[in-house]
């Protein structure tokens, strides 16, 4: 019975250490992303311009999926 208790404790201890390591790795990976944030470079006119273009690919998509023309 003592072997069972040791095995359970070891598994729990392992899971605790893995959880702490995951949190530390996540914080390390997130740090460069936060520091490299940049402001939006588009002007107001560029933000408002039309971006949708009905190309041949778009027309084909509509045709295949039976959207009305």
Describe the structure.
With 69 residues, the chain is mostly helical. It has a domain of 34 residues. The chain is 70% helix and 0% strand. It has 3 helices and no strands. The radius of gyration is 27 Å and the shape is elongated. The N and C termini lie far apart (74 Å). The model has no long low-confidence stretch (mean pLDDT 75).
Query: Helix fraction?
Result: 55-70%
| Helix/strand order | HHH
Helical run tally: 3
- Biggest sheet descriptor: none
Q: Distance between the terminal alpha carbons, to the nearest Å?
A: 74 Å
Shape: elongated
Structural key phrases:
70% helix, TAT_signal_bac_arc, Formate_DH_TAT-contain, single chain, mainly alpha, elongated, 69 residues, Formate dehydrogenase region TAT target, TAT_signal, 3 helices
Write the layout of secondary structure elements.
Elements: H1 2-35, H2 44-48, H3 56-64
Protein name: Formate dehydrogenase region TAT target
Region (Disordered): 31-53
Biased composition (Low complexity): 31-40
